[in-house]
Amino acid sequence: MMGCTRRLPLIAALLGIAFAAPVSAEEAYDPWPGLVQDILNNRPMNDGADVIAIEMPYRAEDAAIVPVTLRSKLSPADARRIRSITLVIDRNPAPMAAKFELGADANVSEISTRVRVNNYTDVHAVAELSDGQLYVAKTYVKASGGCSAPAGKNAEEAQNRLGQMRYRQFAREDAPASRIREAQIMIGHPNNSGLQMDQVTQLYIPAFFINQLKLTQDDSPVLSMEGGISISEDPNLRFTYVSNGAKRFRAEAKDTDGHVFRNEWDVEKPGT
Question: Are strands 45-47 and 134-141 parallel, antiparallel or unpaired?
Fold first, then answer.
């Protein structure tokens, strides 16, 4: 009887394993090592806990417009700077969502945008520093169907707003002393992913999205973006940078159909 008693916990454990929900091959598969090879040329990765932060909601309210914020964690005493940040949504059909190049003198410390998320997934932010090293941080997001979700605007409305840009600035208490500015660029564009279906014809809408964006203060680079299908409809970038005293802020965007959109604003009088 004592032998049977001792074996009960073992039997219970084995039964627990037998009846546990099976893990699908897709859930067990980790695409990240392959993405490091394909997107980042298999370069070595360092822990980015003290370099780069990535913030996203754990469970997204709308998979087609999931907010993401990338923030530098480098100490002001650190002589290095972040040259670029690559945003990778591991399980999206086109995992590289965007690559941001940061102006050498703009001291961009934070970038926020909105992305589509197609499956429950890890999301990685890879920062390349001025020392040539890569540093990675990641988060996990529960969302699905974002890349195939219908557009928020009809085709005619989207066409009427194509390429329209708005520039906004936000007041900061520390701005007068540090020249730090917080700004936002919004571009009217459907950013079709190629996975969305026309509800009338039942045909897939061809991919059509902003794939390049360059922002400058006068002619000095602030921030540029190489974008993909994961950037949400009506691309929206909010970011911090340090003013060099320029009077004009300029934006130039290009899309996959070859359209070029340009605009500029008086730094002291931002707006449409």
Answer: parallel
Question: Of 210, 47, 225, 237, whose CA–CA distance to 126 is shortest?
Answer: 47
| Residue 247 burial (10 A CB sphere; 0-12, 13-18, 19+) | exposed
* pLDDT on residue 177: 53
- DSSP, residue by residue, 40-75: HTT--EEE-TTTEEEE--SB-S-TTSEEEEEEE---
Q: What is the tens place of the pLDDT at every residue in 229-239? A: 999 999 999 99
Q: Residue 61's CB: how many other CB atoms inside 10 A?
A: 9
Strand partners, 208: 192
pLDDT for 156-176, tens place per residue?
888 889 999 999 998 766 555
Strands of the sheet containing 210-217, edge to edge, are 45-47, 134-141, 121-129, 82-89, 96-102, 220-227, 210-217, 248-255, 260-266
- Give the dihedral sign, CA 141/115/229/151: positive
